[in-house]
Amino acid sequence: MPHEKDGVQRMIEWVGRKTIAGYTYLAALATLVTQAVLDLLLPTRQGRGETRRVLVRQILFTGVDALPVTTVIALLLGIIIVTQAGTQLPRLGAGGLVGSIIVVTVIRELGPLITAFIVVGRSGTAIATELGNMSVTREVVALRLMGISISRFVIMPRMVGMVLSMLCLTLYFDVVAVLGGYLIAAAQLTIPFYAFVESITKALSTTDVLMTAIKGLSFGSAVAAICCYHGLAVQSSFTEVPQQTTRAMINSFVLCLLIDVVVTVPLYL
Amino acid sequence: MNEAALVLEQVRTPMAGGPHALDVDLRIAAGEFVALVGPSRSGKSLMIELAAGLVRPEAGRVVLLGHEWDDTQETEQTPIRLRVGTVLQQPGLLSNMTLFQNVLLPLRYHHGAMPERSREQAVMAQLERLGVAPMRDRFPDELNHGEVRRAAIARALILDPEVLLLDDPVAGLDAEMVLALKACIEARRAHHPLTVVAALRNFSPFIEAADRLVVLQDGRVVVDGARHAVAGAVPEMLRKYVE
Questions:
Q1: Within 13 Å of residue B155, how many CA atoms lie on the same side as its CB?
Q2: Which of chain B's residues have a Cβ under 8 Å away from the Cβ of A48?
Q3: Could you give the 3-state DSSP secondary structure of residue B198?
Q4: Tens-place pLDDT, residues B118-127
């Protein structure tokens, strides 16, 4: 019996520790986001030009450079979904629901999520690695010593760049996926363009577009905060860099899915 | 007596990787050039990091240019940092910027209103003084240790600091470059008041520019005084660091 009690106690302690660690982690991420928002809204004259340069570089890397891969994935996803929907739904007598399927699967869910996964894989890991290496080579300390704000010069432009890029990429992904769906619908299912567009516009509501944008913004903030946090958590060894990068990637995926659930469930249930 | 530029008042803090703790009580006057010398793990680098506000002491207080680091929030540190140039053992040049851009960065960040041409002239003058102007378009990875160190010193001097904290400034420098660095610091001190605190782990002619020697061993000051006056007081086993 005493052993059992010890085991239960240990388990409760473990759960307690993990819960506290989880809250602490989320609080640290929230602090990073809040500080970045404050830096954005309360700009000082100091470092404005330099910060803008970092921001532009981040948008180019996260947004513009990601366009080819996003195009390919979105196009293929659109083709796959419309192929499945277009071949299965008519058997059930629901051929007119192709538009709804596109809206529900691509615009509401897969568009924001897959875009987030692309951004995490390309840019999130790059940010975590870059900041990790900067920490090890003491570039971060050198910036502090020069009176350059890490939050304003390093974190804020990366976060803003990632959020803007994520938002634009999400909307772009949705448009390209719908286009991919139309291509296959026109080629194989011989659905007329107007019918295809009509079925989508009928199914699409303002809420859907708004939710997609909100998801893009939330995912962007979360991924940027997580990747900056883990990059800057690297202490003194290069071996920590891949470890923190992996953590950043996994945690980004998990938090994006959590945010998706939190945003989606109350709205559509 | 001059106003103190740096005060380490009864500072005590553990030293990483060793059994000893740094235990010092030191006051450095404005305009003084102090050389911290001693073997590895004697606490020189830790003193530089304490002075730069990167490490908080376990006991005692560190006051730099009248500001106690413990009382200064991270957000309030910028005005102090602008008056202090620091080069650590790992100089931390930004790897995605050329040497020129590295030295230009503090000017661009803190003096946004200054015309770009004036900024570039100031950077080139600084690079020329330290003999790294020909490498201006190279990235840190393309430079040797001595060039990286000189570039970092150029970056530390670009904002005309009142205090210069240098951790092993002559590491990787050839004899000629050590003399050039010494001449650069001396010229600077002749024209502007500049307090220099330099940690040196080997004997170097650079030490001759110092007004005062502080010899450390196992985290404690064993000799402290004017360079010429204390040379004879340095224990036999530590003489190789100062002569």
A1: 36
A2: 112
A3: strand
A4: 999 999 999 9
Using alpha carbons, select from B71, B84, B22, B72 the residue that is nearest to residue B47.
B22
Distance (Å) from the alpha carbon of A41 to chain B's nearest alpha carbon: 16
- Tell me the mean pLDDT per 10 residues along chain A, length 269: 72 93 94 93 82 94 95 93 83 77 86 95 96 96 94 95 96 91 79 78 86 93 96 93 96 95 84
Which of A137, A146, A156 to mutate: most B Cβ within 10 Å? A146
Q: Do A216 and A166 touch, CB atoms closer than 8 A? A: yes
Contact partners, residue A39, CB within 8 Å, separation at least 6: A149, A151, A152, A155, A156
Residue A60 makes CB contacts below 8 A (sequence gap 6+) with: none
Of A235, A229, A231, A232, residue with least CA distance to A255: A229
- Locate the domains of chain A by residue range: 2-268
Q: Return the axis-axis angle of helices A156-184 and A193-203, rounded to nearest 10°.
A: 130
Decide if B16 touches A, using CB distance below 8 A. Answer: no
Q: Which helix (H) or strand (E) holds A250?
A: helix A240-268
Q: Which candidate, B197, B156, B172, B51, places its Cα nearest to that of A143? A: B156
Please report how the helices A156-184 and A2-41 are oriented relative to each other, as an axis angle in degrees rounded to 10: 90
Which residue in chain A has the smallest CA separation from B157? A146
Question: Which residues are within 8 A (CB) of B177 and not within 5 positions of it... i.e. 6 or more apart?
Answer: B131, B146, B150
B residues 75-94 lying closer than 8 A (beta carbon) to A:
77-79, 81-82, 84, 86, 88, 90-94
Nearest-CA distance B1 → chain A (Å): 29
Residue in B88, B95, B112 closest to A46 by CB: B112
From A254, A239, A34, select the one nearest A124 (Cα to Cα): A254
Q: What is the ipTM of this complex?
A: 0.90
Distance in angstroms (rounded) separating the CA atoms of residues B238 and B39: 8
Which tokens go with A209?
């577009």
Strand partners, B7: B27, B63
E-assigned strands of chain A?
Answer: none
The pTM for the full model equals 0.88
CB B91 within 8 A of CB A139: no
Q: Which of A224, A212, A213 is nearest to A252 (CA)?
A: A224
Cβ within 8 Å of B, A 119-178: 133-134, 137-149, 153
Contact A148 B94 (CB under 8 A): no
CATH number of B1-83+161-243: 3.40.50.300
**B135 to chain A, minimum CA–CA distance in Å?**
20
Does the beta carbon of B234 lie under 8 angstroms from any beta carbon of chain A? no
Give the start-to-end residue ranges of the domains of chain B: 1-83+161-243, 92-160
**Contacts B79 to A, Cβ<8 Å:** 147
